[in-house]
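Sharing a chain and its predicted structure for anyone who wants a worked example. Both blocks are below, sequence first, tokens second.
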Amino acid sequence: MEKCEVEEKEIEEASEVLRQLVEVPTVTGTEAKASEVLRKPLSPYVEEFHVDDWFNHIGKLNTGAERKVALVAHIDQIGFMIKSIDDEGFLKIQQVGGWDASVPYGQRILILGKKGTVLGVIGSVPPHLRKKDQAKEIKIEDLLVDVGADSKEEVEKLGVEIGNYALLLSDFSKLSGTRVTGMAFDDKAGIASIILAAKRVFERKSELKVELDVVATVQEEIGLRGASMIGYKLRPDATVVVDVTHAVTPPTKDKVVVKLGKGPAIAVGPIYHPVIVEKLRNVAEKIKSPFQIEPSPRGTGTDTWAIQVARGGVKTALLSIPLRYMHSGVEVADLRDIIHTSRILAEFVLSF
């Protein structure tokens, strides 16, 4: 396959869309905050944009066509909730979504309080003071949050209370070349790709023969709940879910096959409809866009699961953006993978 180049303006556009998305916190349960950050970049390329009762965000183009194709990615991100506040002003947290407790330890945390955001730090028992028989593995219940207060009353004056959501404080930054780092690339990299795909389809609207539904789902990180709603409500003829997958690093090279910067991964396995999978491969080859194949014999914990079995079943496939250090504050993605994903998605939609 000939090398498929990306232009500098595409790199900058993808970077800016992703930056805007990750800078708005959308911990599972707070997805309503995403409305404006989704509406602004997507609205120019759709005829309708609306938010349902559970804050799934849906954009439609060529509304009312006989057949319907959906591009789906989840807008929620993992985070925390405040579990308790003790008399000395220390907070306990519980996880929202899947965390390795060693990741938040020693990091800054941003609490979404009722008066605004409150900065804190996440600590635990220093290694110097641990007992010999104390487990070395850190657990979520071992962590505490220090906001600089000396009492529960001081914490409450800051607007922090039990049940507040929180997230790690992590800046979106550029690394070498086309690589970027930050938080919530799972799955805002996917969201960025479907926004850019919608733009590409809009620019070739005269070729569009189906209704295109561009969907940002909620609550993926706690059980694919938004996708269950969307699959039932929209009942598309075909769906491509865009999520992230683990990219190879030295410690994972025996467990992971997908590489960063080599294009998105097309999942192959029982839950991915063979017709849609083959169509994705064909359009990628047609436009000479790089892609990878990821074997998935039992499926993965993505929105694909829920949409596949909605109503009587939906022809569904999964396109995954390679990602290093998933579910951390220093996730690393390659902007070229996001761009190639958007190209494949647009060509897929226009091929119907």
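Comments welcome. The chain has two domains: 8-77+183-350, 79-168.
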